[in-house]
Each structure stands twice: as structure tokens, then as C-alpha cells.
Design goal:
This protein is an alpha/beta fold. Helix content is 46%, strand content 18%. The protein has 15 helices and twelve strands.
Amino acid sequence: MESEAILNLSNLLTDDFADAIQLIYNSKGRVIITGIGKSAIIANKIVATLNSTGTPAIFMHAADAIHGDLGLILKDDVVICISKSGNTPEIKVLVPLIKSAKNKIIAITGNKDSFLGQHANFILNAYVEKEACPNNLAPTTSTTAQLVIGDALAVCLLDLRGFSSNDFAKYHPGGALGKKLYLRVQDISSLNTKPKVKAQTSIKDVIVEISEKMLGVTAVVENEKIIGIITDGDLRRMLSKVDDFSKLLAKDIMGANPKRINLHAMAIDALEVMETNDISQLLVEDDDGKYAGVVHLHDLIKEGII
């Protein structure tokens, strides 16, 4: 039922939708979103989405607005009123006050002929035939429709502003989402030890290096450039094949031309390389191609990238 209602919203679109987007986009003020009851909860979510995608927005509860919070609205602000019926007492009191202050009103309502619909500058029709509630009482389908319209507004504004993933990262610095957008390989590898041996290093010293650095790997370098890699898996395979490794050197068991990544690359890109190649360690190099460290799958897990 709700999916059908969402699909039907496209049939209810008018030029008011595009005009409302242009109004918000060209506004020098903020977007004030108001509602009451379940519509107020939807308003809060739309505010959060707008703020996180580059459009400053503030929630104002319709009941509180007529008891002092109306002072939130500034001269250039655009007001979005959300109401299924468009005829709630609070909305009927609030709308004329907003109009008298010369602020533009965008209505998200399921009743375009309501008090709100008649007095709004733009109407975004959120009509639904029936609520998903068996008694057709609890706001379910109607609030879903309101939310979809709010998301559509946010996405259109995001596109108009050319809002990129880099911009998104500025507003989401915390949590796993933020880290996926701003955390770089260097931020992780710089915290790790930097295991390295030369091609002529004995296997005994290779084992010591891997054990001491505790990353399960060491780079094989020559003139600070990566020429190979030895993992603890390589050591186990060697031990299963030979009894005496006293004469073996790093070059004898190393994997040549290992996968590597630039230290300025995004951490999420390091994860993609690891997953694509089924590896758990990745060597890091700087802009000059010199060995710069190791990033381990466990580091990415610890940072919440996975």
C-alpha cells in the first residue's frame, strides 16, 4: 500500500515542486520546517537531511511557534508547513502569522483544498488514498509520503548546489560514514610500525622483523623503493617445503610487484584493493614511489570502515 502511494506521488507533481526548489535555492535565508504530531517528527527528519546536504534548516514545532517560537523565523527564511489534513488548529493560527511577516510558505499536505493549501505559496501534494493502519487512523502511508517529498526536495537541492562527497564529509566527520569520506591511508599507516628488509636479508632476520613489527608482513625494499613483500603466509609455505632455510634470503621467498597504494588515497580505496585481491595487508608508498608503511585490514575494521 505504501509503495503504491509513493509511486502515485509522481502523478501529483505540478510546477509548484520545481518552483519551491528554486525558491529555496535562491533564498538568502534558511528553511524553517514546521508541523504537529507525526508530521512534526517527519519535519525533524527532513531538517536533518537538508542540513547534512548543504541547505541550512531549522525545525519549529507548530504548537510552540504560536507560543513564542515564531521568533525563529527571520526575514529571508522560507517556511515549509507539513500537515496531512492542512486544517489543524495550530496550522490555522500559524499560517496567517507567517504570511503577515511576508515569508513564503511551501505546503506539504494531503489536502490541497485545505486552509493550508489555500494560503500557501506553493503546494506539494502528499495525498494518499488510505493509511496502512487497518483502522485507517494512525499516520503511516501519509507520513511516508511526506518523508519522500522531503527527501526529493533535499536531493534536488543537493544536485543544484553541486554538493559532492567531499562536501558531505565536511558535515559528517564523525562515525563510520564520516571516516569513509575523509580518512586517508596515511592517517592509518602513520600509526603503524614500518617493517622492511632488503633483498639480501636472511630469513631468520625476516622472521624477526615480521614478529617484532606485528603486522604479519614486511616490505622488501631497495633504495627505499618497494621491490617485494613477504607475509607470514609466505613463511609458513616456505617452512612446509624446506627443512633448512639458513641459506635462504628474502629475495628467495618474496612476492614481487606487490599491490600498493598511495599514502594520500582514501582508506575506503585501500579496502577495495584488499577485497578485490583477497589480501589483508597493503603496502603504502609516497608520491615519489618510496616505501611509506603498511595498512592492515584490522586497521580498517578498528576505524569502522568495514
